[in-house]
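ugh ok fine here u go
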Amino acid sequence: MQEASGRLDRGDGVALAWARQDGDGPAVVFLPGFASDMRGAKASALAAACAAAGRAMLRFDYSGHGESGGAFGDGTIGGWLADALAVIDRLTAEPLVLVGSSMGGWIALLAALARPGRVAGLVGIAAAPDFTETLMWEAMAPPERAALMRDGFLDVPSQYGAPTRVTRTLIEEGRRHLLLGGAIPLHCPVRLLHGQRDPDVPWETALHLADRLQGSDVRVLLLKDGDHRLSRPADLALLCRTVLALGREDGA
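structure:
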């Protein structure tokens, strides 16, 4: 199935890159992780699976990520949520299955809360709600917190490449979107995939999230030998089966 691509001006001169293929609904929307993009292994595998199954799919890059405009260091959770909603609202009309990887899982939850009538299902891959607080701020030593507050940023080493710049604005703005402190009023089917050898997001996060979700159709799939990326062939096959199943009436 042919995939079209383009750039969406979000209204302030920053263009968001997107790629879409037509097909049956619900349409799959892939939301990448922090400092990731729509051309990664999981998004590409899902695009191929959706094409083979005749399912519609949309993927995109947040501002400051991948092929989109804007500066990464200017980004916030609320800003990237606004990017996701802009793309969803302007490029889709059918019901949606939101698929979020790591930070994308948090953005997917927030988008589903903002557009509950549009969402037919949600899949989290090592979903990381509240990570700016629990995995960044709370993990910083007092001197690191002081430097962040003083300088406005902190460059944090990353096992995936160059250091990641964490800004004071990212941390402070993220507090407006925390979810795990109370019930999450989502009632669509939710599937949470998480590797138990994830060095970045504790797998217990999936259990905590499942407990907070108010809907009853919530399933947690733990991969005992899975890492954070969950991009091995078997992981990708499981992801594709899980996502495509949410388009079936039985949702199995």
